[in-house]
Design brief:
The protein is α+β, with helices and mostly antiparallel strands. It has helices at about 35-50, 65-75, 90-110, 115-130, 135-140, 145-150, 160-170, and strands at about 1-5, 10-15, 25-30, 55, 75-80, 175, 180-185, 185-189. It has one domain (about 1-189): Ribonuclease H-like superfamily/Ribonuclease H (Nucleotidyltransferase, domain 5), CATH 3.30.420. It has seven helices and eight strands. The strands form three sheets. The protein has a three-stranded antiparallel sheet. A three-stranded antiparallel sheet has the order 6-7-8, with no helix packed on it. A two-stranded parallel ribbon has the order 4-5. The radius of gyration is 18 Å and the shape is globular. The chain starts with a strand and ends with a strand. About 25% of the residues are buried. The mean pLDDT is about 80.
């Protein structure tokens, strides 16, 4: 989802556990980019383990070769939903994301700086993870709090070193030109 801030769009990405509805990791960035998606996925995997499946939309950040390569190295199935086929509104995650988008857009519209937007983003994730969720109420979870339902659940765990090896070259893509200048995410050093 994107919000306008200081005349520029900001893009927000959140990795959500489908069963508990817990927001595992998130970020606000100046553009929709695969490195943002990979940074958030890396943070979620590092904290909660690698999931068997990643479900995403068909946005550019998720259709890149880098994301596919990381999913392959992590032995994670990547399933993409298509909202244009009419089935996405039947998908509980898509419905949750639409509600989240409305709440998040409003909260971020009240901010005036990137730092304040990031704080609103983190506060929104914390509030969402610790507040009763309608889907969990419907499923008769007691209590219907996403973080409680997630509990100690973990995906496939890897050492930080192994996870870093599988993700680092796309999280920190860098090239060195013949003059010794390093390019990192379009910045030259």
């Amino acid at each position: 989802m994107d919000v306008a801030l200081e005349g520029a769009k900001r893009w927000s990405l959140i990795v959500l556990d489908g069963s508990s509805r817990t927001m595992l990791a998130g970020a606000v960035a100046p553009a929709e980019a695969s490195w943002v998606a990979l940074r958030v996925l890396y943070a979620a995997c590092r904290r909660y383990g690698t999931p068997a499946t990643l479900v995403s939309d068909r946005g550019g950040a998720f259709t890149s070769h880098d994301v596919e390569a990381v999913c392959h190295r992590l032995q994670m199935h990547h399933e993409r939903i298509e909202s244009t086929k009419g089935a996405s509104d039947l998908n509980g995650l898509e419905t949750h994301v639409n509600v989240q988008r409305r709440l998040y857009d409003y909260q971020c519209s009240l901010t005036t700086t990137p730092a304040a937007c990031e704080q609103a983003h983190q506060a929104f994730m914390e509030r969402s993870n610790t507040t009763a969720h309608p889907g969990l109420l419907k499923e008769h979870c007691d209590p219907p709090i996403p973080r409680v339902v997630l509990g100690e659940a973990q995906g496939r765990t890897s050492s930080p070193e192994e996870l870093g090896r599988k993700c680092s070259h796309v999280l920190l893509p860098r090239t060195t030109n013949p003059y010794g200048c390093v390019t990192l995410h379009h910045y030259h050093f």
